[in-house]
Amino acid sequence: MNEPWRAMSMCRDFCGPWNGTRRELSSPRGWDGLSGDERDVLVRFLRELGEVPDELHTHVPVGLLPEVFETEEDPAIRFCIIGRWPFRIDACLRFGDEWWLVECKQDAGHACIGQALFYWFLWCRDVIAKRATRSVVACKRCDPQVGNFARRVGLDVVVV
Questions:
Q1: Which CA distances in Å does 71 have to 6, 67, 141, 151, 153?
Q2: 23-61+88-159: what fold?
């Protein structure tokens, strides 16, 4: 029986934004890692934001990330470990020395709020060199109770 966890170790070297997650603001179709709905919400959010970030990153890994050993030859195991394991923030925006974490959803429900809080926690724990100042849920719809709760725990909710 294959045991994929034997093909990896845990690594913090690639937490947070890096050259491989940086995207051109002018090319939404090139924003890898986002679904069409997430991309649409992010485009609307950036349009309503009114200021242009210095950098845009999408599908940004956070948390303890897997590092695949070079001896692992099975491409299916390599793909599962690298492509499916890590937690990934939909978008990170850099304004000067500050970073905003953005989760993009059609409907912001309680699970989305938990996801945004969890990613904020992982960023603060693991991405020490880059200070996150805002965690934003950008969405098309948000239940008022969920929005009120999100704001009370320090998240910004932006309905676009």
A1: 11, 12, 46, 47, 44
A2: Trna Endonuclease; Chain: A, domain 1 (3.40.1350)
